[in-house]
Amino acid sequence: MIIAIDGFSSCGKSTMAKSLARVLRYMYIDSGAMYRAVTLYALRNNWIKNGSPDIPSILGGLHKISISFDYNQGEERNITYLCGENVEEEIRRLEVSENVSPVSTIPEVRQEMVVLQRKLGENKGIVMDGRDIGTVVFPHADIKIFMTADPEIRAQRRFKELTEKGIKISMEEVRENIARRDFIDQHREVSPLKKADDAIVFDNSFLTPQQQLNWALDIVESIAGLHEN
Ligand code: C5P
């Protein structure tokens, strides 16, 4: 099956997608990591100035950007590679988070990423999370989940995650970043973040990771049952 999980920033999509993929022995792809990798490449080349992407430079250099994933058995997760370099940690930095949504509005960037995402899903057996997976990348996905959670709870989770990694950031900065990304993601012209008509809405504000995994597994079981009958 193809399982598409979309939703707002920091609402637990990747936690659920990862654990679901592990239980089902599916591949997990974090499509946000791709947009983050493009953003990192642009930052390194000074193609983003004061939060504004220099679009001609990005378009001119897009063909040089190659993104791939490699599953690390020990860490039980996919590592993101940018032109052969492990950038898994670097793409999570605040500077990337602050610039990724403007870069993700560029239609040509999205086109390239969608090609790659569809290629990764060619053999099915995949859980992919992002903003447009159920609407654009895999409109015929077997299961579409649209995740949401209370904004304050999302900010608290994100703050905890970043500070645990040793990243120095204030709660206010986290709140602002999430709100800004949500706004840009929902209002961009190409592939805005929105619920697919046939997606199941899931609010995980008051659920533990195990409870949300159980919820998702129940959905998978019921859909798999429908496929068999
Ligand atoms: O999922 P994550 O928060 O890491 O994604 C980073 C950013 O990448 C999002 O805020 C959004 O701007 C962009 N994105 C996107 N489409 C996707 C996945 C991510 O536009 N499918």
Please tell me about this protein's structure:
The chain is of the alpha/beta class and 229 residues long. It has one domain (2-224): 3-Layer(aba) Sandwich (Rossmann fold), CATH 3.40.50. Helices cover 50% and strands 19% of the residues. The chain has helices at 13-24, 31-44, 55-61, 94-104, 107-120, 133-137, 151-164, 171-187, 209-228, and strands spanning 2-7, 27-30, 48-49, 52-53, 67-72, 77-82, 85-86, 126-130, 143-148, 200-203. It has a five-stranded parallel beta sheet with strand order 2-8-1-9-10. Helix 1 crosses helix 9 (209-228), helix 2 (31-44) packs across helix 5 (107-120) and helix 4 runs parallel beside helix 8. The longest helix is centred in the C-terminal third of the chain and has 20 residues, at 209-228. It is globular. The two termini are 15 Å apart. The relative contact order is 0.21. Cytidine-5'-monophosphate is lined by residues 9, 31-32, 35-36, 100-101, 104, 130-133, 181, 185.
Q: Rg from C-alpha positions?
A: 17 Å
The main sheet orders its strands as 2-8-1-9-10
Mean pLDDT metric:
95
Main pleated sheet: 5 strands, parallel
CATH fold field value: Rossmann fold
How many individual domains? 1
Helical coverage, percent range: 40-55%
Classified in CATH, the superfamily is P-loop containing nucleotide triphosphate hydrolases
Q: Under the CATH scheme, which class?
A: Alpha Beta
State which percent range the strand residues make up: 15-25%
What ligand molecules are bound, each kind once?
cytidine-5'-monophosphate
Identify the CATH architecture: 3-Layer(aba) Sandwich
Broad structural category: alpha/beta
Please tally the helical runs, counting DSSP H or I stretches of 4 or more residues.
Answer: 9
Distance between the termini: 15 Å
Shape: globular
